[in-house]
Amino acid sequence: MQHFKTLSTFLEYLELPGPEHPMLSVFSATGDGFLPCPKESSPPITNDCYTISFKKIVDGNLNYGRTNYDFNNGALFFIAPRQVLQWIKAVVFEQKGFSINFHEDFLKGTDLAHQIKKYGFFSYSVNEALHLSPKEEKQLESIVENIEIEYQNNQDEFSKDIIISQLSTLLKYANRFYERQFINRKELSTSLLEQFNEQLSQYVASGELQENGIPSIEEIANNMSVSQRYLSDTLKKETGKTTTEHLQLLLIDEAKNMLLQPHKSIAEVAYELGFEYPHYFSRLFKKKEGVSPTEYREKYKMN
């Protein structure tokens, strides 16, 4: 897989204009302007740059990570260094939009170098883009305009600090808007929870639990074609529980049924549920139910 270490070589590969700054490029379409389009197609590639773009695809397909990007209505998306990017036919964008690309070294020595790693949306799968309202678009466009002014001006000792400050503001707004999206898109959250539970149910029913042990959250997320971080954030926002807690609840629910079979020992139940060590199962069961597996079984017998 081809990897680009500098912003210049990356943009050259895309057949886009070279950057005004060796570590920063800004493309913005205002008025009758238009965004330049990248080369017609590309196999999977990676680079050492961050990308923040607001675009609408008119035609073509863009793949980032595992999934096809859905931003026909216009969406803000984020690409982190060394993430896999691919497009398989000519991608045509609507004229409006913006794209900011900056090398990870551009942030060295700044607070943003540490802060940016806390923004989960850089690790999200691409179909989990941020869908902006018209008002939100205008707010971000004004910030990008400020960045572009500094980008186009003659560089001085204040330029980088001003640009970094504006980038930080842009990301803070994006974080706020994502929070709004998590709250407003309850239908998506419910769908993800249903899919998550369905994946777990199928895993248990197929016998994989006994054969391969408890699945990782990453494995489940991959099967759902979403990122682990986005799945966890969405379910946490909607239900108040993490993906791990949802997984544990399902295992405990299965355990209750199995514990009602008197011929099974506690150890057998634990092993069949994918626990490598029975004492870990017993600790988790008591933590969630307030009684041990043995006490739960005895309580059922009395009833």
TrEMBL record:
Record keyword Transcription present: yes
One Pfam family hit: HTH_18
UniProt xrefs under Gene3D superfamilies: Homeodomain-like
Keywords for the protein's UniProt record, in alphabetical order: DNA-binding, Transcription, Transcription regulation
GO molecular function: DNA-binding transcription factor activity; sequence-specific DNA binding
SMART domains recorded: HTH_ARAC (SM00342)
Domain HTH araC/xylS-type: 198-299
PANTHER family recorded: ARAC-FAMILY TRANSCRIPTIONAL REGULATOR, TRANSCRIPTIONAL REGULATORY PROTEIN
Protein name in UniProt: AraC family transcriptional regulator
